[in-house]
Design a protein that fits this description.
Layout (H helix, E strand, L loop, with lengths): L8 E5 L4 H12 L3 E6 L2 H13 L4 E5 L5 H14 L5 E4 L17 H20 L2 H7 L2 E6 L3 H4 L5 H21 L4 E8 L5 H4 L3 H9 L9 H12 L10 E4 L7
Parallel strand pairs: 1-2, 1-4, 2-3, 4-5, 5-6, 6-7
Helix pairs in contact: 1-2, 1-10, 4-7
Length: 252
């Protein structure tokens, strides 16, 4: 039986941990050849080793996905080593974490970092694949936004703004690229068990999880399942959409 992504080349940013890792493993299981991008060299090489141990093919690349020159060089290497990407998952991103603050007390340098890593990276990486996708007449771009983009979480005003920007970017580019057979969609995780969450007080994590209708935090694989749908041919008539994967915590 043919796998749903057989013969496809997929690029995953932020592939070293969490949702990026889970999505990379899912893409590989579905038959895709992978280019894995992450700032953490050892982590991304570890995921590539997992993929290869399971019989897949992966090219690990360590870079800063908010740096335009590094992105251009990385995608040139991908085209040379693997070919032109069919799928791009813009997963890289993070909140301010220990630098979170109320808006009135905020540091604008933190805002620059948040916009760069969450929104600018998404735009820069997308620019590297759209021309090839237009020429081919097909392609899938999946952008990671967040539940915070729509629910206005406290002390994450900068992250909420950046992730809302990802939704706006997704909608505008989806409309522009739809005539060329390119689908652009967004997935918005809610509370998800990633490395960042493991660093929080676990009684706080449990309290938040108990308030979710599903009564649990999401797993990276829960998010990867939604991403896999948008990467597959099953989503060919779906574009410009944002799917929240959050156990019913917030609904559009």
């Amino acid at each position: 039986m043919t796998k749903p992504l057989e013969g496809k080349i997929a690029v995953v940013t932020g592939a070293g941990n969490g949702i990026g890792r889970a999505s990379a493993l899912r893409f590989s299981a579905d038959g895709a050849t992978l280019a894995l991008l992450d700032l953490d060299k050892s982590a991304v090489e570890g995921v590539a080793a997992e993929v290869k141990a399971a019989g897949g093919k992966a090219l690990p690349l360590a870079l800063d996905c908010s740096n335009a020159d590094q992105i251009v060089a990385a995608f040139a290497a991908i085209r040379k080593e693997l070919g032109k990407p069919d799928i791009l998952l813009n997963n890289v991103g993070q909140s301010a974490r220990e630098r979170m603050s109320d808006f009135v007390n905020s540091d604008m340098a933190v805002l620059d970092f948040i916009l760069d890593v969450n929104l600018k990276s998404c735009i820069l990486c997308s620019r590297q694949v759209v021309n090839d996708m237009k020429e081919r007449g097909s392609g899938k771009i999946i952008n990671l936004t967040s539940e915070s983009a729509v629910n206005g979480s406290l002390k994450t005003w900068d992250y909420s703004a950046a992730k809302a920007g990802v939704i706006g970017f997704t909608r505008a580019v989806a409309r522009e690229l739809a005539p060329y057979g390119i689908n652009v969609n967004a997935v918005g995780p809610g509370m998800t068990r990633t490395r960042a969450m493991d660093q929080l007080p676990q009684d706080l994590v449990q309290k938040i999880a108990d308030a979710i209708p599903a009564r649990r935090a999401g797993k990276p694989e829960d998010i990867a399942n939604a991403i896999a749908f948008f990467a597959s041919d099953q989503s060919d008539y779906v574009t410009g959409q944002t799917l929240l994967v959050n156990g019913g915590n917030w609904m559009l």
